[in-house]
Amino acid sequence: MALELIGAILAAATLGLLAWALRRWRPGLPRWFVPFSAAVGLIGATLVLEYTWYDRVVAELPPGIEVVHVEEEAMPLRPWTYLKPIKMRFWAIDQRKRMIHPQVGSLRMVPVLKFARWRPVEDGLIAVDCAGGRQVPVVEGVKISETGELTGADWQPAPAGDLLQAAACREG
């Protein structure tokens, strides 16, 4: 966050200084041209940083981390987001740490990572029943027995076309 603030301030200062130099070179430019240029630099840098956040974070994910859900958001204090919503949150699963039940091959346990703008990464586990098309978050008190029986929670049906379910159940 601090680096993005510094980047936005540098963009504003650079455009403001360029406008100041241009105004010195061409005296006919109005006085408001310098602060207007600085504001354009600040807003432009902020927009670029906001809209590229998702791509920058995903590009830094190690191999084996697979994005399974992305949430876009439109906000009243950022009216331009009604034209093109910003990706503010996404979920990914860590395929490297996916576990398959030793007795029931259709049961999987996958680590889930929740990324959100301006927030630390949250992690958790989800149990997935590939044969039954259902899943459940693994929290305190939830257990899966050696025979594959779930206790401490109820299975929830996976939504149609759920990428988390598909990724967890994919072989390989």
Polypeptide structure, described:
Strand 5 and strand 6 (134-138) form a beta hairpin. Helices cover 34% and strands 28% of the residues. The chain has helices at residues 2-25, 33-60, 163-169, and strands spanning 65-73, 86-94, 99-100, 107-116, 122-129, 134-138, 143-144, 150-151, 156-157. The protein is built from three helices and nine strands; from the N terminus they run H-H-E-E-E-E-E-E-E-E-E-H. The protein has two domains: 1-60, no CATH class; 64-172, no CATH class. The longest helix is centred in the first third of the chain and has 28 residues, at 33-60. With 172 residues, the protein is of the alpha+beta class.
Helix-strand blueprint:
Blueprint: H1 2-25, H2 33-60, E1 65-73, E2 86-94, E3 99-100, E4 107-116, E5 122-129, E6 134-138, E7 143-144, E8 150-151, E9 156-157, H3 163-169
Concise description?
The chain is an alpha+beta fold and 172 residues long. It has 3 helices and 9 strands.
**Count of helical stretches:** 3
**Pairing-aware structural class of the strands and helices?**
alpha+beta
Number of extended strands: 9
Helix content: 25-40%
The biggest beta sheet reads: 7 strands, antiparallel
Q: Which word captures the global form?
A: rod-shaped
Instruction: Please tell me the overall pLDDT.
Output: 91
Poorly predicted ranges (pLDDT <50, ≥5 residues)? none
Q: What is the subunit arrangement here?
A: single chain
Overall tally of structural domains: 2
Features:
alpha+beta; two-stranded antiparallel sheet; 3 helices; rod-shaped
